[in-house]
Amino acid sequence: MLSQQLLLSLLIALSVGLVGTIALVLSKDRRQALHQQLQVQTENTLWEFLSLATARQVWLISLLMMVPMMALITLATSLFWAAAMALATGALLPLFRGKLLQRRQQQISLQLPDVLTLLSHAMASGMSLLPALELTVSQSPQPLKGELALMLQRMRLGESLSSALNALAARVPTLAIQFFALTMQIGARHGGQQVAVLQRMAAALQAQNIAQQRLMSLSAQARLQGRVMFLLPIGLFLILRWLHPENTALLTETRAGWIILAVSVALLLVGHLLVRRIMQSAADA
Q1: What is the domain count for the chain?
Q2: Is the dihedral of CA 191, 114, 46, 99 positive or negative?
Q3: CB 282 within 8 A of CB 219
């Protein structure tokens, strides 16, 4: 037993020493370059997986990841807590997915003006639409790069520009992308000065993003107060439960107490959702 502990300690010490040696040998610029390269490769790999994997495969992988965790929880505590954890995870997954999609759409909206500027410069230099899109995609950041690359791939396979743009607007249902798709379709159908239109659209979207960021910074205090007011009763109850459990026994050990707790949690959730809806309406306006 002692020899195994010594061996484990030796392996940990060697690992820490190796990481420290690498950190000392590599310069700061080299470490930043490696970090940026790893980040780009991870984003590209994740985008390829999410774009090529079917919904059945994603759910199957999620289930395979959850089964060992549920088994460990069952062995450590009981089957009841494992089932409760599984139900809580299943309830939180849609919320987590919606939050990630919202953040991704916000990043795409912020990246779109710079990408439109690149596209307009490429077309102003004499390129046609398809080569200009290829050059723009190669210099665009993720996640917008992945969406434009998929649109470009659909066009290479024979789809029309209108169909590829409609598919892009369906995958990313934001006003900026819909505006971009509609502008490109009208320009391709009726002709006109697409370079000037793209430059004006990029300037308008950039001004809109600046105004929205200013609005979010001005409303940061209100949003923080909403979170604090939502978490304050829960934190106060947990502190009282830890310090004086006899004072909270009426709520946790009686049927009427459970009903009161359920109603309180429901009212907290409704209030939090109403505050979020009001703030979202103000941000959209």
Answers
A1: 2
A2: negative
A3: yes
CA–CA distance, 41 with 38 (Å, rounded to integer): 5
How far apart (Å, rounded) are the C-alpha atoms in residues 125 and 130? 13
Rounded distance between C-alpha atoms, residue 197 and residue 120, angstroms = 9
Question: pTM of whole model > 0.70?
Answer: no
**Radius of gyration over every alpha carbon of the chain, rounded to an integer in angstroms:** 26
CA–CA distance, 241 with 263 (Å, rounded to integer): 18
Could you report the per-residue pLDDT of 208-237, keeping only the tens digit for each?
888 888 877 777 777 777 778 878 888 888
Contact predicate 172/181, CB 8 Å: no
The CATH number of residue 119's host domain is: 1.20.81
Residues 119 and 191 in one domain: yes
Span between the terminal Cα atoms of the chain, in Å = 66
